[in-house]
């Protein structure tokens, strides 16, 4: 257990257990985002006991179009910071494609020229990235979406989080596929809020090659989970590790214009996985747990 959370009237008390760095990341993120209106206000904090008292957020039932408020809320959160905040949070990690390429070879699939496209760099952005914007960490009211649980907050590229709606909530227990019409409306709302547009395919590919996105947070300990999934499968709440990989491969296989070699690799890999693995279903509706 990394934290204990309990209600005290109109307040929420949270104590982070065993990870002082995570506590400080959360406090810093809440302070940096306070002006956005999408995070709870800090009422009291005890750094020694790693305990924070927060306002208790209103949480209304969500509608079918919740994804639009979700995306707009993420946009407001991501805009909370800029280059002047460099060093106040860790940098967002850049994925290492090497374990993924080993996985592809272990599956007996030809890599082809995809390796040339699987080169990732820090984008140089200074957005305030939540780190785990999952069901249960978002709440809704007439004012829109608000977010809690910032233990994994970083500075980086917020686009990697708006693509949760395309790539199936990669760091989350509940995986779901957002209907295309709603997803496109949400992505449009995100970029309208931010005042620019950007391609989203590269951010999806980054999640596709990320082995840590196959296990829950407590298990992201340096283990090569892509090597592990070749020989075994495991459930994480709504589906299995193999089910997650197969869904992501299906998404990336459509990126024929922006990532033609990676798209072709994803199709070959998906064909192979369908031959040797039992497909696992992915929900097409949101199961909210907040």
TrEMBL record:
GO terms for molecular function: transferase activity. The keyword Transferase applies. The keyword Ribosomal protein does not apply. Residues 8-198 form the Aminoglycoside phosphotransferase domain. It comes from the Bacteria. Transmembrane segments: none annotated. InterPro entries: Aminoglycoside_PTrfase, Kinase-like_dom_sf. Keywords: Transferase. This is Phosphotransferase enzyme family protein. It comes from Lentzea albida. The lineage of its organism: Bacteria, Bacillati, Actinomycetota, Actinomycetes, Pseudonocardiales.
């Amino acid at each position: 257990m990394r934290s204990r959370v309990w209600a005290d009237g109109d307040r929420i008390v949270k104590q982070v257990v065993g990870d002082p760095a995570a506590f400080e990341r959360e406090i810093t993120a809440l302070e940096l985002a306070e002006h956005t209106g999408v995070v709870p206000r800090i009422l009291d904090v005890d750094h020694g006991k790693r305990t924070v008292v927060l306002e208790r957020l209103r949480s209304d039932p969500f509608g079918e179009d919740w994804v639009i408020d979700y995306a707009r809320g993420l946009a407001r959160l991501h805009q909370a910071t800029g280059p002047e905040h460099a060093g106040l949070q860790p940098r967002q990690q850049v994925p290492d494609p090497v374990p993924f390429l080993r996985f592809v070879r272990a599956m007996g699939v030809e890599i082809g020229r995809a390796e040339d496209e699987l080169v990732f760099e820090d984008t140089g952005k200074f957005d305030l990235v939540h780190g785990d914007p999952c069901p249960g960490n978002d709440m809704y009211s007439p004012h829109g979406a608000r977010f809690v649980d910032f233990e994994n907050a970083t500075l980086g590229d917020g686009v990697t989080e708006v693509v949760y709606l395309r790539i199936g909530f990669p760091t989350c227990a509940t995986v779901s596929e957002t209907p295309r019409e709603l997803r496109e409306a949400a992505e449009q709302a995100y970029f309208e809020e931010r005042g620019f547009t950007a391609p989203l395919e590269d951010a999806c590919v980054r999640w596709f090659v990320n082995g840590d996105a196959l296990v829950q947070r407590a298990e992201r300990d340096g283990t090569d989970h892509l090597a592990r999934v070749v020989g075994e499968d495991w459930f994480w709440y709504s589906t299995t590790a193999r089910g997650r990989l197969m869904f992501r491969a299906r998404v990336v296989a459509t990126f024929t214009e922006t990532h033609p070699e990676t798209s072709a690799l994803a199709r070959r890999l998906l064909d192979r996985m369908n031959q040797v693995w039992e497909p696992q279903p992915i929900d097409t509706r949101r199961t909210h747990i907040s």
